[in-house]
Amino acid sequence: MEIIARISQIFHQTKIALFPLEESLGEDFMAEVQRGALKGFRLACGMAIVAGLSFALVYELIFPARSYELLPLMAAMVLVGMMGIVFSLTPSGKRHPRGLSLVVANAIGTLLTVSQLVIGSHTYGHFGGLSIILLVMATLGTLKPFSVLVSAIYIVGLYFSTGIFLDRSVGWPPPATFILPCAFLAFSGIIAVGLTVFFHHAKPGGGCPES
Question: What is the 3-state secondary structure (H, E, C) of 4-18?
Answer without folding.
Answer: HHHHHHHHHHHHHHH
